[in-house]
Amino acid sequence: MSKWWVLALFLLCLSCLEEPDCLKSSGKVVKAAFIKLEENEADTVVIKSIAVEGLADSVFYQDFGTDLNDTLSSVIFEVNPFATSSIVHFYFPDDTLDMDLLYTVTTRFISADCGADQLIADLRIESTEFDSVRVINSQIANEAATNIYIYQ
Q: How many Cβ atoms sit within 10 Å of the Cβ of residue 2?
């Protein structure tokens, strides 16, 4: 009886091997960190919202006004994977600042079952209304890696 259970378990595991391994390594998320200019360490800011032009769900952070003492040291937002630029609007309590990002998008074919993957790289800042910004990682890969320092 136990041989049949082992055989059934083996066949079940074998059937899982037929599914394709669709590992997609790209991302479309940019992480920007706020940095104190003179101390070169993390800073915190109050942000009401962040929006990206050209995306249907463009609001990535929204403070609903319950407590304006909530501060952030970094923000995460998406870029448009179907374009080579995105304009990001940062809404602060007393001001709005924009940042125009440029990047390259390369599409690579993985397989018929997995489809295609988009690699977004060569991130750069075309223009900004912030005093000082710097791209520290031009490869847009995942949420963990910081791409941009915004100096305050």
A: 6
